[in-house]
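Demo today. Your pick:
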Amino acid sequence: MSEKVQMKKLFEKCHAYTRADDVKSIGIYPYFRAIQESEGPVVRMEGRPIVMAGSNNYLGLTAHPRVKEAAIKALEKYGSSCSGSRYLTGTIDLHEELEQKLAEYVGKESALLFSTGYQTGQGVITPLVGRGDYLISDKDNHASIVAGNLIARGGMNTDIRRFRHGDMDHLEKILQKIPEDAGKLIVTDGVFSTFGNIVELDKLSALAKQYNAQLLVDDAHAFGVIGKEGRGTASEFGLVDDVDLTICTFSKTLASLGGFVAGDERVINYLKHHSPALIFSASPTPSSVAAALAALDLLKENPGLVDRLATNAQRVRTGLLDAGFNVTPGRTAIVPVIIGDDNKAFQLWKGLFDAGIFVNVFISPATPPGKAMMRNSFMATHEDEHLDFVVETYKKVGKKLGII
């Protein structure tokens, strides 16, 4: 077979994929929409102001003057890049300062930064679990954890077990079948990214103890959202000492790009010297680290932001429920509205966008088939007028489309 024919075969799936083109052709494509200005509660898109009801900028700090100033000063002092991995020439004092402050804030001995949040899950899971070990993961865990699972299975010959989402009975049945003396790591989101529900950490932690398993919690959507002054899932349940490792991203609450893991010093030290994602990646840039540092300081100084975020999300959640929408219960920043049909969800998105609101549309495989949804997420910096505008616009468009 010629090289040309082989390439054609490889790309057949690319040419056959037309779903996005079909949606674009009728004007209801909701993805890859460019923001032209700001990352606050009101942004500019297509030359007009849009209320942002789909960002993970939970505390609204990406546009805070102190965060921007810190990033600018770091750029001026250190340049645009560290030009190397943390392992070699890529460590600056800002990395170490942020690691120390993050460890203290989440109640752990030590922390380690990674260049992206997505990379963090892989960077922690892959070096920790190997041949003869077991990785037990909630089926609804974030894609970064799933990727880490696959790498561990393929490269480290780890035995991967997945339990039904939030099903502690199923988890226990899996644990009962694993040899008692085997290494076991249970991995879960703290707040699940699609529906915004919180893991039953008390029950999961009890099982981890009973079956001698270590516990890793991904707090990407929990840090700055739940727990005492936004310290995350372990704090929310009073189980800081029972969670072995916490991982998190900077791209939500911490208004930047990157991620971290926090845990016992000996474990973090091991990851420093064994994590390919750390050793073979350029380190987080000075500006991104400085921005995260400033955001963390602002969170410490303004714990009321966490309460304001919860109040804002609940205001919309209640309003949409009262209007007759199918809203998933919760108490985090994520407010999902179940629509069902993909095209109907796209039409609702278009109606909201035309009226001046941006939300996210999730369809299969991000959701179960037939469970297309609008994934709304709110910020502490939304004003009541923004939130009420969202609710009233949902009502108007929802009635027009026959959704309510």
The first strand starts at residue 42 and ends at 45.
